[in-house]
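[INFO] parsing input record for Protein MgtC
[DEBUG] input buffer:
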Amino acid sequence: MQFIHNFDPAQFLDSVASLVAAFILGALIGAERQYRQRTAGLRTTVLVAVGAAAFVDLAVRIAGSVEAVRVISYVVSGIGFLGAGVIMKEGMNVRGLNTAATLWCSAAVGACAGTDMLAEAALLTVFVIAGNTLLRPLVNFINRIPISHEQAEATYEVHVIADEAALGETRDRLVERLAAAKYPVGDVEVIEREDDIVELVATLVSTSVVGKELDAVTRSLAVLPGVRHASWEASTTD
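[DEBUG] output buffer:
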């Protein structure tokens, strides 16, 4: 039988050690994801780690370390497709990025185990778990720090509601006064409203502003003939 011919007890035990290590380390990473009820939990993380270890171990045994490097590159790209499946967009929010990154790291743990770098696989596991647990209080602290418009990078828009008859003049004054305030306009969109009312939306080139300066611009626009309202807003969501 071909199995008897190919079977090598030493290599078999080496594969067992690699797969067991990938299973245990993947389970440690996945337990944290499961506790937080993430899309990819304990079983998914374990399967990713074990699968990566199995593919890399197989490549090492059949063709050596050179081909194992090629298989690792395929594992990295393949996990990218799997990670994309756990990323969800809900309205303006995106969820699952951290879980996708965890799956990617789990594949790295499995690849280390598959190449018999068990100590490195264990060290990487420590870093992954630390990233998902110890950094969480720091993230929450940073998120609670108020951020000013001067520090934020975002897309800024100036909205002016005016009579349609004053459209041309209002658009010229809008661009002119923003340029005078050192906020060049990238685009001006005209939206038709009811009863001969239009809304001009000017998107600024700048990714950060001084709020008081834009307040002054909108106040000066609001008193123009034919202008009913002027305001500005920022959007930090791509």
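[INFO] The longest helix spans residues 9-35.
[INFO] shutting down worker
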